Amino acid sequence: MRKLKLQMQMTIDGFVAGPNGENDWVFLPGKQDPEVLKQIIDFGVGLAADCDTLLLGRKLAASGFCTYWEDVADNQPGNPWNPLAKLIANHRKIAFSSNEASLPGRNLKVENGDLATIVQALKEQPGKDILVYGGAGFVSALVSLNLIDEYYIVVNPVAIGTGISIFKERKILKLESSLASKGGKVINKYVPVSVGS
């Protein structure tokens, strides 16, 4: 069965966005260390290459996520994010919405049905794993429904004090691996722990 993998940026105080959805803390101002950037990009490319389907919430899909990555893939060969952009642009994408019939994006389909039923059916299809990036409300629904099989949390060395969390109830997770970058970002891989195990 295919796994549903979550890749999400998070602050050290556990938020995935500011109170109004801000994510300006992901890349702090100033000169970026090319080695750190390469490490983060290589991680993202490796994770995306193991998947062939992306799940998106309506808000993320409608925000221009697909068209942004398509532009990087098609028109910016020198951009360091180009290898990841090509994967994102060419992967099958499914956006979940209760009221939209279509959204802009290459290889993008909109689903209006029951989230748990559709995701479970996707997991049972043949193919590579499934990846979800966000947004926060959509990911929170997946977490609450226990649909995430692997959590890849990129913990950033910044606290914002208040914001949006993807966790609405207690979840017990097991740390399987951790990769620290010189820039202070730490990529932690967690898997859910079954109650009683």
Average pLDDT across residues?
93
What shape does the CA trace take? globular
Strand proportion: 25-35%
N→C terminal distance: 21 Å
* Category from helices, strands and their pairing: alpha/beta
The total of beta strands comes to 8
Helix content: 25-40%
Describe the structure.
- The mean pLDDT is 93.
- The protein has helices at residues 34-49, 58-62, 65-75, 82-90, 115-124, 136-144, and strands spanning 4-11, 51-57, 92-96, 108-111, 129-134, 150-156, 173-180, 186-192.
- The radius of gyration is 16 Å and the shape is globular.
- It has 197 residues and is an alpha/beta fold.
- Helix 1 packs parallel to helix 4 (82-90) and helix 3 (65-75) crosses helix 4 (82-90).
- Strand 7 (173-180) and strand 8 form a beta hairpin.
- It has an eight-stranded mixed beta sheet with strand order 4-3-2-5-1-6-8-7, with helices on both faces.
Features:
alpha/beta; eight-stranded mixed β-sheet; globular; 197 residues
Question: How would you summarize the topology of this molecule?
Answer:
Blueprint: E1 4-11, H1 34-49, E2 51-57, H2 58-62, H3 65-75, H4 82-90, E3 92-96, E4 108-111, H5 115-124, E5 129-134, H6 136-144, E6 150-156, E7 173-180, E8 186-192
Parallel strand pairs: 1-5, 1-6, 2-3, 2-5, 3-4
Antiparallel strand pairs: 6-8, 7-8
Helix pairs in contact: 1-4, 3-4
Give a short overview.
With 197 residues, the chain is of the alpha/beta class. The protein has 6 helices and 8 strands; from the N terminus they run βαβαααββαβαβββ. An 8-stranded mixed β-sheet has the order 4-3-2-5-1-6-8-7, with helices on both faces.
